[in-house]
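Office hours follow-up: a student asked to see two folded examples consecutively, so here they are.
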Amino acid sequence: MTKKILVVDDETSIVTLLQYNLEQAGFVVETAFDGEEGYNAVLERKPDLIVLDLMLPKMDGMEVCKALRLQKINTPIIMLTAKDDEFDKVLGLELGADDYMTKPFSPREVTARVKAVLRRTTTVAIEKTQENQDKSFEFGPLRVYPERFEVFLLEKSLEFTPKEFELLVFLMENKNRVVTRDQLLNAVWNYDFAGDTRIVDVHISHLREKIEDNSRKPIFIKTIRGLGYKFEEPKVV
């Protein structure tokens, strides 16, 4: 089935360039030229992937991304920006973007990234349909239902961004094993950020704030100095 890509950018030349190259690669391409139009287009046209510019009129890319994730719309997003700014990169991914590219870029690279993100999300979707819908993780007072996107701590429901949730599940699936920051980048973001592992530390910090009684003295997610992180089941005293 042909995949539909929504390109949201206020620069006509970039939209035209991306539309041509993506259509040449076999995709159906929809376009929007401001954040508000792009947000509505996602709701109405239901694309398989969104190429979203950061700097947009009416609603910027961050606002669009955040609004979609709050609506539980997990359509993959590749964010574009003219800024080569680490803060923007971390914040964009933190809000739920799946990949991040800085202008100027090669249209071929965008097409390759689109294909890579779609391959990954399609594989994950297939794997999920093959799993037991009632699969859960339970560690002390913490219960996680991967298929339902639900987390409970002492029976209280917690809210997570998609990437926070995916990171938590991956750590739980690898409990008692040390995983490096690079391994987490590859597993959760499926992209090599050339040693830029701050995004992992930011997400680990947010997870600890939500599931730990004292984020400075974590009982679930331990830092293994010089190596990475390890998820442990709390010891019963």
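And the second, which I mentioned at the end of office hours:
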Amino acid sequence: MTYEVRVAEVSETDTVINTLTLAFATDPPVRWLLPTPDAFLAGFPGFARAMGGPGMAEGCGYLAEGGAAAALWLPPGVSSDSEAMAAAIGPHLTEATGAVVGEVSAAMSGYHPHEPHWYLAFVGVDPVRQGLGLGSALLKAGLKRCDEDGVIAYLESSSPRNIPLYERFGFEVIGVVQPGDFPPVYPMLRAARG
């Protein structure tokens, strides 16, 4: 099936974040960080905005099918706002979970590429539309631009069930991050094409 995928306008940032909020409501690492409904709804939108939102101004946010699915990419040279990410989740962490988050952050930075790359910060589908190919359509759109640049792509899969999808697009698991009781996250890299 063919879906309409387009670059999201900056004015549609709320739509992108709302779709991702629905998509990540049951994501194991996100819910470990923000375990209660109140914490999730208070913290996740700001966290997603800080992690992937800088790509919106670069034309790297995508919407499919009128907001049924969304993705936030960061192109080479654009980074997440780590201070704003910490501010979004910090109020919801305990001393113990904060220590684990520090370990997670350190481990992830060890896998994150230092050379020019495209970073898929988030891709998500409204739960009522999952499993229909919308995620694949978003990946194709983002990877097309990545391949035009001829650079590597990187992501962190927060669910083992998503790994086969990413592998179909050329990503390979390069490790696992799982300190303490934190749910596993799988850094994945895709070689440069073009």
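Two things to take away from it. The chain has one domain: 5-190. The two ends are 26 Å apart (CA to CA).
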